[in-house]
Amino acid sequence: MKILVINxxxxxxxxxxxxxxxxxxxxAGLIERIGEAQGILTxxxxxxxxxxxxxxREEPIADHEAGLRLAxxxxxxxxxxxxxxxxxxxxxxxxxxxxGEAFKASARITSETIAAIEKTIPLAPLHNPANLTGIRVARxxxxxxxxxxxxxxxFHQTMPPHAYHYALPYEYYEEMGVRRYGFHxxxxxxxxxxxxxxxxxPLVDLNLVTAHLGSGxxxxxxxxxxxxxxxMGMTPLGGVIxxxxxxxxxxxxxxxxxxxxxxxxxxxxxxxxKESGLKGISGSNDMRDIHSRAAEGDERACLAQDMFFHRxxxxxxxxxxxLGKVDALVFTAGIxxxxxxxxxxxxxxxxxxxxxxxxxxxxxxxxxARETSKSDSPVKIFVIPTNEELEIARQTINVLNL
Length: 402
Description:
Helix content is 39%, strand content 20%. Helix 11 crosses helix 13 (340-347). The strands form two sheets. An eight-stranded mixed sheet has the order 5-4-3-2-1-6-8-7, sandwiched between helices. A six-stranded mixed sheet has the order 11-10-9-12-14-13, sandwiched between helices. The mean pLDDT is 94. The protein has two domains: 2-151, Nucleotidyltransferase, domain 5; 201-388, Nucleotidyltransferase, domain 5. It has 15 helices and 14 strands.
């Protein structure tokens, strides 16, 4: 069974074709600079295998429809394609960033589904319009295949009201949906299931803390397979410090800066989204660069990484208390999977919680699923590479009962 997964951004588009009989990627692609004078499509067959081959096209790509048509051609191209025809694709799964309260799970895409996603645009004005564009175009190109929307926020819809409400006038929640939604749900769900497999225990019998640490970062408390708290809020700005996002912040700071600088709402938003986080403190949002500079004694690099580790430890500790009993801590995403120093520093001082990191194993763990805790650690520590595309494909199959 072949499932196409589509992740549509404002000026880019990622896709992956998976063979779900073996859960392996047949092809993957990235389309960049959509709508600019020169677009780029990088298409890879059998990624991360010995038979990997790449095809690159540099040409104007007017819009997402043009980009998806190019992808469709390459997937079925007689020389570089991996399917005989586009009709061989049996279903299409779409990443949708925000489902609001309307979607507590993935959903088959119908005209009603699209209308409901449109209503969530005010909650994710930068993401959901692009996601909808990908859905509309793909439904026109892959007319024989059923389509499924998989929401970043859906996994966190199990949070209890006391965890997702803000202490604001209640009518803001009733009228505008102002509440905490959480993000990276597809990743948190995937690594939780993989952790259960490594522990040889049903997910419903486990309590986990999962740390998705990349350019965007979030922590999640998972009780018996359900998210009961997560660090991000109504938007992906809240929680731990990220590459260019601020994380948790006293809202009075925003009013003070806006008043002193005369900034508009749009200017404040740009600072919080693009100029803050690790970049705001150190000048760089690349953790590798920050580590290198910190090792040389750069004070701002040292400060940036210390702040990053501190915030993550805060959330890990808080979620241990929220859950009461924790079976495992899971690190995932770009930094979580590949950065032993971050994992070491984030576990530092948490030995009283039962987190005993094996430093030798941790140093050798980069990008592969494995346990990094000591054999006698009361709480297991895992590094598990995330695979959001595979999780989207799995959920697509589940929704369609294929």
